[in-house]
Specification:
The structure holds two protein chains of two kinds. By secondary structure, chain A is an all-beta fold. Chain A is built from no helices and eleven strands. In chain A, strand 9 and strand 10 (107-110) form a beta hairpin. The mean pLDDT of chain B is 96. Chain B has no helices and nine strands. In chain B, the strands form two sheets. In chain B, strands 1, 3, 4, 7, 8 and 9 form a six-stranded mixed sheet that branches. Chain B has a three-stranded antiparallel sheet with strand order 2-6-5, with no helix packed on it. Chain B is globular. Chain B is mainly β. In chain B, a hairpin with a 6-residue loop joins strand 3 (35-39) and strand 4. Classes of the chains: A mainly beta, B mainly beta. The A-B interface holds A 37, 39, 46-49, 52, 60-64, 96, 98, 101, 104-113 and B 1-2, 32-33, 35, 37, 39, 43-47, 50, 56, 88, 90, 92, 96-105.
């Protein structure tokens, strides 16, 4: 059974750095082709892809947010960490992590999501 | 800022059929597989269709997908109240750097 779960702060202040952790089970990030990505969804709005890290440490970022994002993995802990710097109220959203089933493949398993509010 | 355009909403009566379009370009839909995701109210998205027209295990055949050129379509037949949800198309895009893109989303309402 494949599961993913996001964890991190529910409230951050403007200009702070957000750190989110995705802890997963049922698959390994050392398996060829597998990746874990982050997607967010502001309240009432559409999904927005943020970043993805593959089994071979290949990393992909949204061009519009690339300067603010860093994605890393800890294969031994089955975790992927996303950091986003200089948070702003417009970054208020539910953040999801999801498994990428392979290069050029979709996200086939999703976490439940975690709501992050940016407010002073 | 999505590069994939969907109608904001579609609706039909129970038992009827709806189709949702997803319009893109040669840098995304035109050269990559399209997926569709279903997001029931208050829940995480779920993969509904992958590789244009394939269904993951457990997805009923009332859901179907197709692709032609730079557009894709999701079809839902035998509409049920439990199908009320937001639906998103998604695919890879290589116009700037390789990135994943989602559609603008479509709300399906069962009348």
């Amino acid at each position: 059974q494949i599961t993913l779960k996001e964890s991190g702060p529910t409230l951050v202040k403007p200009t702070q750095t957000l750190t989110l952790t995705c802890t997963f089970s049922g698959f390994s990030l050392s398996t060829s082709g597998v990746g874990v990505g982050w997607i967010r969804q502001p309240p009432g709005k559409a999904l927005e892809w943020l970043a993805l890290i593959y089994w071979d440490d290949d990393k992909r970022y949204s061009p519009s947010l690339k300067s603010r994002l860093t994605i890393t993995k800890d294969t031994s802990k089955n975790q992927v960490v996303l950091t986003m710097t200089n948070m702003d109220p417009v970054d208020t959203a539910t953040y999801y992590c999801a498994r990428g089933s392979g290069y050029f493949h979709p996200f086939d398993y999703w976490g439940q999501g975690t709501l992050v509010t940016v407010s002073s | 800022q999505s590069v994939l355009t969907q109608p904001p909403s579609v609706s039909a009566a129970p038992g009827q059929k709806v189709t949702i379009s997803c319009s893109g370009s040669s840098s995304n839909i035109g050269n990559n597989y399209v997926s569709w995701y279903q997001q029931l109210p208050g829940t995480a998205p779920k993969l509904l269709i992958y590789e244009n027209n394939k269904r993951p295990s457990g997805i009923p055949d009332r859901f179907s997908g197709s692709k032609s050129g730079t557009s894709a379509t999701l079809g839902i037949t035998g509409l049920q109240t439990g199908d009320e949800a937001d639906y998103y198309c998604g695919t890879w895009d290589s116009s700037l750097s390789l990135r994943y893109v989602f559609g603008t989303g479509t709300k399906v309402t069962v009348l």
